[in-house]
Amino acid sequence: MGTKTWWSRTDSRFLEAALGLAAVLVGVFGVLLPALGVVGLRDGPMDGVEVEPEAAARIPEKVSAAVTGHGMTLTGTRRAELVFADPDLGQRLLLALPGVVGSLFLLLVLVLLFKVARTLSGGDIFVPANARRLSALGLTVLVQAVLTPVLPALTTEMLVRGSPMAEQVPFSVTFTGEHVLLAFLILALGEVFRRGTKLRADTEGLI
């Protein structure tokens, strides 16, 4: 007597389509369009970045003011925006780099999930390849958890270095533990898959 499952082949196809569409959107809007903006082939502003100014330079809430100098303008309250009057190629690259790198990591995550989802349509998700994919996924999320806060701080430091604005925008990195915890959970799941597939292979070999 066969067993019925709530997950069907149609569900697998919908999941694959959703992940594929998400990957395309991230590739276009997160990588391609910013890259075109860096080289000047796309209209639209690429001249600012959100920063956290030095405590002494923070503009009080509900007060509109700006600090200007060296072709840059710092405007805002506790979370300010650093805007460049006429950014050159190098500055546009530094402005776009954190977002592009984050999108590339997200694209890799979606590709790995897509490959895992494809095994669902075959009816067997517990295969050695998925154990490797989950391990790669966990490592990707872990590296992303470290780079996501560090890279914007580094690029902002390079943008203001040597200018009077460097005194207003200090190097600041804030880490959060959510993505690190998620990464270790995924790595643990990958280890469960690896041991499960190895145990099944050993069991099948005894039959």
Automatic annotation (TrEMBL):
Keyword list, A-Z: Membrane, Transmembrane, Transmembrane helix
Keyword Transmembrane helix assigned to the entry: answer is: yes
Report the transmembrane regions from the record: 14-36, 93-114, 134-151, 171-190
- Which InterPro entries is this protein grouped with? DUF2975
Name this protein carries in UniProt: DUF2975 domain-containing protein
Q: Which organism is it from?
A: Streptomyces qinglanensis
